[in-house]
From TrEMBL:
Superkingdom of origin: Bacteria
Coiled coil: none
SUPFAM superfamilies, A to Z: Tetrahydrobiopterin biosynthesis enzymes-like (SSF55620)
Cofactor binding, note field: Binds 1 zinc ion per subunit.
UniProt-recorded name of the protein: 6-carboxy-5,6,7,8-tetrahydropterin synthase
Cofactor dependency: Zn(2+)
Metabolic or biological pathway, per its Swiss-Prot or TrEMBL entry: Purine metabolism; 7-cyano-7-deazaguanine biosynthesis
Annotated catalysed reactions: 7,8-dihydroneopterin 3'-triphosphate + H2O = 6-carboxy-5,6,7,8-tetrahydropterin + triphosphate + acetaldehyde + 2 H(+)
Keyword annotations from UniProtKB, A to Z: Lyase, Metal-binding, Queuosine biosynthesis, Zinc
Binding site for Zn(2+): H15, H40, H42
């Protein structure tokens, strides 16, 4: 029997959507206000889901306290209250769209989880915009 456990966390970060291979005009046309040279911020809401069998000894798929600690260590400590473009190595050469942020989060978490657990992440960038990545 497979069960999914979920943990939701929040982080605040600034970013700028920009393609350095394009002209300023093209960047403005495609990314609009998200291309603001002085950056802008979002209150990101992140949900991490782990799917797997229930351990008969604990009754847990995965201890959510430990999941919280993992997300804090691997994601929040790096991204919270940072400028994603300037302060993080992850987005030095990668446009910090919601899609790319979700993939980076998944890649940061995956090595720390047992292979039998399926991992997916949902990232809300605004109340109305969200992306999902399942690996
Ligand atoms: N596929 C993607 N499209 C867009 C992304 C993205 O990461 N992936 N990002 C943006 C902007 O950065 C931002 O998320 C959009 O902000 P905004 O237009 O203010 O969105 P809201 O939901 O708050 O406002 P609405 O007016 O309801 O759209 C754009 N696109
Ligand atoms: Zn944005």
């Amino acid at each position: 029997m497979q069960v999914t456990v979920c943990r939701t966390e929040h982080f605040n970060a600034a970013h700028r959507l920009h393609n350095p291979a394009w002209s300023d005009e093209q960047n403005q046309e495609v990314f609009g206000k998200c291309n603001n040279p002085n950056y802008h911020g979002h209150n990101y809401e992140l949900t991490v889901r782990l799917t797997g069998p229930i351990d008969p000894d604990t009754g847990y798929v995965y201890d959510m306290k430990n999941l919280s600690k993992l997300v804090k260590r691997e994601i929040l400590d790096t991204f919270d209250h940072r400028n994603l473009n300037l302060d993080t190595e992850d987005f030095r050469a990668l446009n910090p769209t919601a899609e790319n942020i979700a993939i980076v989060i998944w890649q940061r978490l995956r090595p720390h989880l047992a292979p039998h657990l399926a991992l997916s992440v949902t990232l809300h960038e605004t109340d109305r915009n969200s992306v999902e990545y399942h690996g």
